[in-house]
Structure formats: structure tokens, C-alpha cells
Amino acid sequence: MNNTFTLMARTGRAFHLAQGAQLRITNIFGSQVVDTWAFRADDINEYMSMEHTRVHSTCPTPGKGTVFRSNMRRPLLKFTADSSPGVHDWFFAACDGARYEMLGFLGEHENCSDNLRRAMTKLGHPISHIPCPLNLFENAPLLKGDIGIYPPASRPGDFVELTAFVDLIVCLSACPQDMADTNGLDREPKNVQVSVVHY
User: Fold this and answer.
1) What distance lies between CA 12 and its chain's CA centroid?
2) How far apart are the first and last CA of the chain?
């Protein structure tokens, strides 16, 4: 069974991903970063952890073949396909109100942390802790000890696929960042396409 939907720019959405199912995220315009989280469906206190994943990885950045582990060090997702140049991030925390305030924005601004909270609450799983996300398509390389932010290297139509080891709740946020080059030189967040294939 294939379920496809559009994740609108600046918004988040949480949904169930069954064991063995494949999640495909297509960067329609090529320039949109997608913050990605995963929680065990039977216990959301166990979640995909970039810190624990990096310890067990042989690569400096996430890519095809990476096994994303939980805060209990158990496999949750595997990176099974990537048609993009393979530039993704697993260091940056999700943006939040404080981040935009530091950038000089006054007032409320859409952000990935709030997108995660709202999406999980809507699904019946309110959370307080915001894990570090897998930032798909984000171009933030380590440069001599500093992290720069550059437009995504992905191209229109590029996609990634992740496969679930166990039943999960996945949350995606089409990053609302419009004060840096995170989502392209035009700094305009855009829609992405999401497909879930259950076998």
C-alpha cells in the first residue's frame, strides 16, 4: 500500500511507519531541508538519536547504508536510497523561537521544534524533549572546526528512502528557516513530497 502526501512548507507532520515500510522524501524543488525524527511506536521515550548513531557509524556524515540508532542504541531506521549528492546533516539542533530571536526576528516565527511538538500532540503523544533531528538535504559542513550554512546541494526531484526496523512514529518538518541559506539562496521554504510504502 502506497500513501503519498505533500508536506507543506514551514509545517510538520507525524505519522506511523510500520516495521519494514519504506519512507521516501522527495525534494520537489531541490532546496528544502527536512528535519526528521523517529520514535518507537510502543514507547516514545525511545527515539532516534544522532549522538548514539554517530558513535556506531564509520562515516562523518549520514548517507546510504547508515543505520540510525535509538537512545537505547537499537536500530530504528536504515538509510536505503539516496538520489541526491548525499549532503545531509546530523549535528544541527532543530530551530526554535530562541534561534530566530538570536537572528534578530521579533515575535513568533514558525520553527521545527514547535512543528514537532504540535505534530506529536496531534497524534496523541505530547513530548517535552526535542531530540537532535536528522536534517535531510541540509548543507552544513564542518569547516576547520566551524559549521557553515550553505544552500542544499540537492536538485529538483532528488529523493531519499528510509526503511523501518520496527514500528515507528516518524515526524517530518519542512524547515521554516528564511533568515539563512538553509533552504536555498532565495531563503524561501518550499513543499516536499512524502511517500510511505507498506508491504
Assistant:
1) 10
2) 6
Which conformational region is residue 134 in: left (phi greater than 0), alpha (psi within -120 to 50 degrees), or beta?
beta
Q: Which of 103, 171, 108, 102 is nearest to 136 (CA)?
A: 171
What average pLDDT does the chain have? 95
Is the pLDDT score of 92 beyond 80?
yes
**What's the pLDDT at 1?**
59
pTM: 0.96
The predicted structure's pLDDT at residue 122:
97
pLDDT score at 142: 77
What is the domain partition of the chain in residue ranges? Answer: 2-197
